[in-house]
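Q: I have 260 residues here and want to know how they pack in 3D. Can you give me a structure?
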Amino acid sequence: MRLPGRVVVITGAGGGIGRSVALAFAAEGADLVLSDLADSVDGVAEEARRAGVKALAVRGDVARAADMVTLAAKAVDELGRLDVLVTCAGVDGPGLLAEQDDATWTRVIDVNLNGTYRAIKAALPHMMARRSGRVVTIASIFGKHGGYGYITAYTASKHGVIGLTRALAAELGAQGYPAITVNAVCPGYVRAGMGIRLQHTKAGPLSGAEIFDRYFKRQVPLRRMVEADEIGHAAVFLALPDSGAITGQALNVDGGFVMS
């Protein structure tokens, strides 16, 4: 175990990538505060506790700043500290831009980008008080690449997440907090949740499965989807003491699809 005694807050922990991130940290001995709107977060917390760590399940919406403030405070009040934040909460919003309704666009940006901002804004004062911490945002390879015409809002939001990550890393260093690092993990198509749903989405003349095969599968050197557990391992890596010299980076975990 490489993170015993550390306290990790994870948003969007009720399933998919968030669940895998939570269990990866539990395997390293970290205590967890897990947030999600879904009741499934209770089950994830129970899985983590079976690994021998403390795990709290908290209902919370990243679209509500007050929920994020409560989440961060709960980590400190009940577990004594807040060492790591991983922002996994996110939504997709399939649809060509010409067909995108304003409500869906606004919701995707508000959850994926503004929700990441709210979670960080709430957790950061606790890290600054200790002068140490790790922030790991879950972005996407579509934060570096176009979204092939059917996840435009999602692509825009994830570009924003990477920009926020880099700006905050630079800001903290300039403010004299070099022991607080901020990095992003950029998954490719993951065999969970959103990655599966997008293959069943219609976009203009092409189905999601056709888009996946034509624009992604054939261009990935590993010729496979990413497993959710592999995203969890990457998040753990960026939270380790040995990763203290890494900040402002956006780590692709995508089978080699985007090599930059």
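Q: Anything worth noting?
A: Residues 7-188+227-253 form a domain with the Rossmann fold fold (CATH 3.40.50.720). Strands lie at 7-11, 31-36, 55-59, 84-87, 133-138, 180-187, 202-203, 206-207, 250-253.
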